[in-house]
Each structure stands twice: as structure tokens, then as C-alpha cells.
Amino acid sequence: MRIDKFLKISRLIKRRSVAKEVTDKGRVQLNGKLAKSSSMVKVGDTIQIQFGNRIVKVKVEKLQESTKKEDASAMYTLLSDERISS
Fold this sequence. Notes:
The chain is of the alpha+beta class and 86 residues long. The chain has one domain (3-83): Structural Genomics Hypothetical 15.5 Kd Protein In mrcA-pckA Intergenic Region, Chain A. It has helices at residues 3-9, 16-24, and strands at 28-30, 33-34, 46-51, 54-60, 76-83. It has a 5-stranded antiparallel sheet. The longest helix is centred in the first third of the chain and has 9 residues, at 16-24. It holds the Pfam family S4. Residues 1-64 form the RNA-binding S4 domain. It comes from Enterococcus camelliae. This is RQC P-site tRNA stabilizing factor.
């Protein structure tokens, strides 16, 4: 599954177009390397996303083509959510 689609379906980012933009601007890392929006995600991968002054790190638990809002958080495990001071 493409990383931009995973971010949208897991509801880490609300829209796929925003997920694509954030990824292409270099704010998303897949297993410690900069990711492109077309990067493929597998179960067990770690994703790090920079949201302004926050860095969120998650581990991919499962891949689904679609999901309900309540089930979206089961697609990943939150490893860390830290604020960075400027």
C-alpha cells in the first residue's frame, strides 16, 4: 500500500492530497529514510511524521483498503508523540 493512502485510511492525516503533499515535502520518514508519497508500506514498518512542532512515530500493524473511523487506530501502534521546541 502506498504511504499516502495508508496515512489517509489510518486517519493519521485527514485527506490523501494533504498526505501526499506532506510526504513530498520531506516531513515523513519510513524506517528512518525520507519517504515519497509512492513509497510502499508493509506491516512492521515505522513511520515518523512531522506536524509543525510535533513529531509522531507509529508502527504499522495491519493494512486495509478501507476502514471505519473506530477501527482506524488498530492499523498502527503509537510509539511516540513528542513536541519539539523551536
